[in-house]
Amino acid sequence: MVFSSLLFIFVFLPTVIILYYAAPRTIRNLLLFLCSLLFYAWGEPVYVLLMLFSTVIDYFHGLLIHHYLHNKRIAKWFVISSLTINLLILGFFKYANFLVQSANEILGTAWAIHELPLPIGISFYTFQTMSYAIDVYRGDAPVQRNIIAFGTYIALFPQLIAGPIVRYHVIADQLNHRRESIPQFANGIKLFIIGLAKKLLLANNIGMLWDEVRHMPAGELPLLTAWLGIAAFAMQIYYDFSGYSDMAIGLGRMFGFEFPRNFHYPYISQSISEFWRRWHMTLGAWFREYLYIPLGGNRVATWKVYRNLFVVWLATGLWHGASWNFALWGLYFGLIIVLEKYVILRLLTRSSRWISHAYTWILLLVSWVLFAFDELDLGFAYLAAMFGIVSDGLMNDQFIYLLYTNILLLLILILCATPIVENMVCSWKSRYAKLSEIVLQPVYLLLVVLSVAYLVDASYNPFLYFRF
Predict the structure, then answer these.
(1) Under DSSP, is residue 461 helix (H, G, I), strand (E, B) or coil?
(2) Among all residues, which ones are annotated catalytic?
(3) Cα–Cα distance for residue pair 100/382, rounded to 1 Å
(4) Could you identify which of 278, 288, 299, 432 might form a hypothetical disulfide with 266, taking C-beta atoms 3.0 to 4.6 angstroms apart as the criterion?
(5) Tens-digit pLDDT profile for residues 22-52
């Protein structure tokens, strides 16, 4: 089950809200935990057992870590045990076949590959469970003695499938002491509607343009068509993922939780480093907190800083998927960020912001090609078309048709990828508070009507981060 479905919007969510607010406060975590398990089981019933196993294992590891905090050596071994179990589970389901297939190709062996479906959202909730053991060990968060509250943290359906990745110390106090409010609930509904519209009305529609371009043979792609196609993918993945994150944060607010922001207008960035401070912010924060800094961060010798950055970015790439294109995608960003850190940023500060934007966008569009194509040969062929190596001229009639039929949508996408609209709305609200609320209500209603109308007739409704 996904948020952008009629079943979720009109059956599951209203039912859970009614049950939640009708229930005594003492059992609300239990209700959310059970409903979250049902939500997860709707897509993959058998993997609920895997989630329950992870919940129980990490719950007792947390108790043992806390119990032995007076002896850091013993407590550290329980942290290592927890991390090892979680990484083994993640590695088995997500990376085992990739490793076997790679070994077969390199060594010429014929080891069997067993196609197991990837548990939905395993990359997200595994990182959350690992943050719990580390936070308790560091003393950044109290141990959770209530297994139902802990299970709610792991399985909470608003952020279960695609984040944001909520580190335990961020939400620890909210698990037991949150206080819901009508303004918070109303704000959650608005944010959910905005996220739903971003996903259905923007991401899905521009995604159809990318879907058409990507299936054209690279050798027959005019240069401008190739750039238009990957720009469409860049917009699709942004509105798809940020829309889902907005829905998740909005749902959290409906139940009294405050999740961290996951996107902050990344496409206005003037460097790749800035882009990654604005894109998938909770993933970046997780790697910085639990991998980069423990490795020494930038407080070590220069060559070790290089090493730390490349380790983090290789891990970031492989987190997204068990495929060589994701590994290359991560190392690509690692190389750029190293170069920016020591050379490029100094040059960009002396140039105009338009040059900085162009530099960032060109590198980002190249990166999205690596991300979009699981098969490296197809990705390299597409890059060759983008840079005129194998392209079929500069443009053709089909390019003009694709641009003409999507120009309005592209302009809307570009505008909404900047803070211009948000700033205008905030400014208007500050001047005309009551009037703005009256005017905005029909806008939210219109977005709901258009989104539902799209779902009723939807034949194209992918979710790009569903596989992660």
Answers:
(1) coil
(2) 320
(3) 28
(4) 278
(5) 999 999 999 999 999 999 888 778 888 888 9
